[in-house]
């Protein structure tokens, strides 16, 4: 609590508004100090709502990767590699013939739900439950008892290769991919907005493009997919079969500098008071924004590149979990700054409401079967209720 008090003081709470949110100077926003202060406020707010089995001694503290000791980083890497070696628990009924390990199971859990949990009402809450599933498996199967670490993009917008997360050392999650020269720009045409013309976003290629070159996870095997999006029919054998290939990355500061800076994250938290706009700008939903069509969500995915750009099987890269944990952190901060008014969802249950589907409510269910049972969406809002969550971000 002394650390939290110090952060609150540093954030300038002496001039706080009646909502207890300071009027941050632009320099504080751009440096990350404001986001750190908002995190501290959110933590204090969350800790007033512990309940059930989530007692103060059981709370998991989710921390930024570089704040862990090198020994703990190595322990986490070992736990993830352990999980990658555990056998699949999916039914052997031919649905997912390529699932060999729990790592494949997690990729499948995301893959088959892709068009229901992106650009839909359940994007943030389902991914929160997915992260909890991963965190729980790391503990029960591989002995990692601390909170799940996250990646603060704002610290790496100018030098991803030098990031402690991607520097290729034994305390990282591996390096960039092998550099592939001569590649053209990436062109992303986003449809679904009010204008029939797509929103075009162009990225230059990153600094890799090939298989992860060195460090932990350069031996990670991607089995499921690829998933063609050109109309080619999918079958269980073609997209869920065993198609072993390397884990590729293409680190790229351009998307981070455009979409995932400290300013992007902080202005998102402070700029919107309803879930439709907050989540819409976070995802870059073209039904909500045409000016920010990628959002902090897309910025992180495109910043890592490689398979992490793939909206279907991106969980194969350990970076996926760090990135989505940061997204959940941003969502968690936003919620806890006005918790009583930020416990709802907005939208339907399909990507961009295609095909049209009913509106989702907090009484509806989400699951990560067979690894986690169905829960009501309303039970995913409080992360210290003990039913089922018990974590905060620091």
UniProtKB/TrEMBL annotation:
Record-linked InterPro entries: Di-copper_centre_dom_sf, Tyrosinase/Hemocyanin, Tyrosinase_Cu-bd
Keywords: Metal-binding, Oxidoreductase, Signal
Matches recorded under PROSITE patterns: TYROSINASE_1, TYROSINASE_2
Xref: Pfam families: Tyrosinase
Keyword Metal-binding part of the UniProt annotation: yes
Entry keyword annotation includes Signal: yes
Alphabetical list of SUPFAM superfamilies matching this protein: Di-copper centre-containing domain
Signal peptide coordinates: 1-16
Membrane-spanning segments: none
Domain Tyrosinase copper-binding: 118-135, 317-328
Name the UniProt record assigns to this protein: Tyrosinase copper-binding domain-containing protein
Gene source species: Podospora pseudopauciseta
Taxonomic path: Eukaryota, Fungi, Dikarya, Ascomycota, Pezizomycotina
